[in-house]
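Following up on my earlier thread - several people asked me to post the actual chain instead of describing it. Fair enough. Here it is, all 255 residues.
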Amino acid sequence: MGKNIYFLSDAHLGSLAIEHGRTQERRLVRFLDSIKHKASAIYLLGDMFDFWNEYRYVVPKGYTRFLGKISEITDMGVEVHFFTGNHDIWTYGYLEEECGMIVHRAPITTEIYGKVFFLAHGDGLGDPDKKFKFLKWMFHNRTCQKLLNAVHPRWGMWLGLTWAKNSRLKHADGKEPDYMGENREHLVLFTKEYIKDHPNIDYFIYGHRHIELDLMLSRRTRMMIIGDWIRQFTYVVYDGEHIFLEEYVEGESKP
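Reply from S.P.:
Thanks for posting it. Predicted structure:
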């Protein structure tokens, strides 16, 4: 069997609501450095940045350690897949051209080592909230994106980061709600419905919810929500035979 496949999400780098942002980025970079020789592919499942918007000649300040490490890894021949989340939609070529990442703007179904994976950030899947659906439409709308890019980067970035901060601080202690059970979690409900017409999928892997969840939905189908890189520092690793949800501890990994 080949090298490992890694999945992680929700670092929200640059967040104004995270006091330990530089330490957090360094920890993420150390993790990436620790797996670069063991990985054949790394999937970043969305919201790696708290707000990312590329202007024609300007990209956001910061993230140099992270982007430099990603560039090093892709230069080694390791595939790095970047899924846009609901915080980092606004990418127009820089991450592909300068950092070598493969960008996905929608969920994908792909085969890895003979198993079928459904991979997505998870925002909006199964969620009936009309306000969220409208915001998602607006954020993806090309006209709205052009209007945002007409704003000077100083104010455009401030607007995006402030919006993201206020969104996070609406939750108690800046944390997402705890697991609400199979009958209330939108991603679980979506997945149960989806497998009725797609029973061939072995693994569903999501970010977005900032919780750790490993759930068998049938004899074949397993669903995982992979936590975050703000407090949990969790990721999924697949070696071609087994798949694990793990936590990164400095200098080691533990189940």
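The mean pLDDT is 87. That should answer part of your original question.
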